[in-house]
Amino acid sequence: MSDAAPLIRLRGITKTYGQGAAAFQALRGVDLDVYAGDFVAIMGPSGSGKSTVMNLLGLLDTPTGGEYRFLDVAVQTLSRDQRARLRRRYFGFVFQGFHLLARTTAQENVELPLIYRGQRARERHRAARQALAEVGLAGWEHHTPAELSGGQQQRVAIARAIVTQPRVLLADEPTGNLDSRRSHEIMALIRQLNEARGITVLMVTHEADIAAYARRVVHFRDGAIEREDVPVIAADPSADAASAVKGS
Ligand code: ADP
Predict the structure, then answer these.
(1) Which residue minimizes the CA distance to atom 27 of ligand 1?
(2) What's residue 233's pLDDT?
(3) I need a surface site. Which of 51, 89, 179, 247 has the fewest CB within 10 A?
């Protein structure tokens, strides 16, 4: 792959659920290029195809038509097992509802993907502790989810997502269950992972102030990309200064 090739390339992607009279076309031809290091927010009304496209991007589902190239590999030519391997190797997932195992410590939750990879216990312990420290949870390794706040639980889920050193973080409404302050703390963390580690981030959100952490905002409507723009950051002081100058 040349440096200029996108990490992710979607061309004419369609997805139809069901068959015959009950068939429903959830995606109607989506073109999207995502480059290594991008931070893309996906917005749009309920039912516009955001979850469908995230499931396809994360190799959890396959499109009905069109082409998905990941690292210049045509994903549709791969077997189910090959796709699963690609997913485990390159993708980390964060969900609105955290999806942590209850009665299992933060450390053990973070180690799970490494157990699936067959990593030895000592390496697993070390990697999990390091990931927890990176999300600001050093000292919380032996707490269970019930002993952690929502924001801390989402931090554990992020540690679990990054412990495998993924290229791409897929986040589906990562702040949907959090209050405003915790939401902004989580977004600052995700942005730091994007900037410091260079993890490519694709995130679904309903909220413009959460999308403002991204560098690109892609708007879906009726199963297609309606438009793309850069986030509008309401709290930009230079914008205030510019309007103050204009207004005077
Ligand atoms: P969003 O995430 O933007 O709310 P979705 O991608 O979940 O939208 O859904 C897009 C459309 O596809 C919706 O109309 C939804 O009802 C439909 N849909 C999603 N999943 C399925 C499914 N498994 N079977 C049938 N229809 C589905």
Answers:
(1) 17
(2) 66
(3) 247
Task: List, chain by chain if needed, residues with CB within 6 Å of any ligand 1 atom.
Answer: 17-18, 24, 26, 44, 46-52
Q: What is the pLDDT of residues 7-63, one digit of tens each?
A: 999 999 999 999 999 999 999 999 999 999 999 999 999 999 999 999 999 999 999
pLDDT at 68: 98
Which token pair is 179? 């209050």
Query: Which residue has the CA at smallest separation from atom 14 of ligand 1?
Result: 47
β-pair type (200-204, 216-221): unpaired
168: CB partners within 8 A, 6+ apart:
7, 8, 57, 90, 91, 92, 199, 200, 201, 202
Helix (H) or strand (E) holding 201: strand 200-204
In angstroms, what is the span from residue 202 Cα to ligand 1's centroid? 18
Pocket test for ligand 1, best of 24, 55, 60 (most atoms within 8 A of CB): 24
Domains and CATH numbers, the chain: 36-60+90-244 (3.40.50.300)
pLDDT at 149 over 50: yes
Contact 159, 110 (CB under 8 A): yes
Q: What is the pLDDT of residues 82-111, one digit of tens each?
A: 999 999 999 999 999 999 999 999 999 999
Residue 53 Cα: closest atom of ligand 1: 6
Nearest to 29 by CA among 42, 17, 12, 16: 12
CA distance 177 to 116: 28
